[in-house]
Amino acid sequence: MDQKTEFALKALNAANFRELCREYQISPKTGYKWKTRFVAKGLNGLAEMSRKPKGHPHELSETVVCEIVRLKLAHPHWGPRKIEALYKRKHGGDGPSESSFKRVLERAGLTERRKIRRAREGGRLANGLKAEQPNDVWTVDFKGWWRDREGLRVEPLTVRDEASRMLLELRWLEDCRGETVRKRFERLFERHGLPGAIRSDNGAPFASHQGLLGLTRLSAWWLALGISLERSRPGCPQDNGAHERMHRDVRRELQAGRIGRDQAAFDLWRDEYNHERPHEALGMKTPGEIYQPSLRRYEGTPEDLDYGGMATRRVHERQGYISLGKERIAISTALGGWSVGLCPCPDQDLQEVWFSQLLVGHLDEKTASFRPIRREGKAGQPQPEMTP
Q1: Which end of the chain has fewer CB within 10 Å, C or N?
Q2: Cβ atoms of residues 30 and 74 within 8 Å
Q3: pTM
């Protein structure tokens, strides 16, 4: 620094500038740089300066930065990856990198650092069905209720395709009775066809703690249509974790705004969820790009079930019994109006009782009694046995 100062002072009145530069063993270019800085800023101009470039050839333009911020403000609950996918879908071609989106949103104060939660082993279902294709498994539940701006209770029904993440239904209902839910499923089946299986929790109207194998009239109707049943373990929402994750978005984006009995608002949110919101598990595609209607078309409810060569008995519509000779044998009111199939057991003096593809129990003709099947799961709840 002393040598720079000495050189700069001599350079102000030097008769031969190049000879002075050779004396201090610097190039004339460096000498002129020091002299110019000294004249402009004095001794402070001779201090070492950052070599960081003031600009970058690939720096984001103001237009791009504003568009990133605009998309984030329109979707405040989306992370940088979803904003990136939406930007590239809207503008096409190669856009900024993922790190650029993160940096822009962080500088704008529009991101929150994600909390790292300790990983825990997830619970497994008793049957363990895994959806490989759309309509392999649908999941159904009621979102926990809330009060809207008018103080009215709102508890929407949600139905989701597991493989494609397609939200098939988000609808508030007047009540949660089985008949009301069945009408909505009739509309869903007409629009999308039949799934291979439906996964639900153990609550009404999907299941009954006191019913035969937990069956209700609604779930018995699903079986009659050839749809398999899966149930999560009681008190284990992680068994249906992806559905619960979608409910978290509903809580944050609809419930927090106290959106009430406004089906148009629900439909608008569902349309965005299906056709605009990218999903990381889908390679940042939207559910609407993956989902296809089922090849199993819904042709209405059959009048009765066909058991091939089995003997059949009709279950009384309201009281849930079958007649065997002069005896009335109680089966289940959930199966009321449907026929059950009877198949002799080869090694026992009993008959198997089938409802659709589900073995529900055994019939003892000597005692004119019915013995329900019990398949114990991890939680001690009966699990259904299905035919191959």
Answers
A1: C
A2: no
A3: 0.70
